[in-house]
Give the backbone structure.
Amino acid sequence: MDRRKPALIFFFLISGIAAWAADPQPQQHPSGTPVTDTPKPPSNGPLPTKTPADPEFEHVRKALNALTPEQFQRFQQNFLRWSNLSPEEKKMLRDRETMQRQKMLAEAQNALAKTALQLAEEQKALFFKRYGEERRKIEESLRAEMDRQRKPRVETLILDLKNEFSSPGAAIP
């Protein structure tokens, strides 16, 4: 699998999301005829190689349309947060994501080695994909379980601290 494909999809997503999300309505000329705004290519430099009519953009649009309203809202919030990050912060997050992907790939390869299966490349790719999907489910359920266990303990801690610090003899160290 080409490691650049997710980065390209993300790039196309970023470059096309503004136009897609705006959903511009046709403007009316004073005479009543619709005005079509066709973007003009930059005069100083190469023409862009990808346009919103390309298949990659269509895949992105379909993926965004498939999101639930909550998922889409979370996507928009994350997109805004990402766009407000400094280049250094973006690089740091990209590096972290790269390291996580490499770690997950190494763990998937280790899992495949433990099975002692001899798979064709297509089957390996499917194995790695399924491993990643199932592993994410496991991680999410573990996080949810940890949150459920943490909540009552934190509430107890808060009550204990409230009692400790609300007593008249509580001294500030």
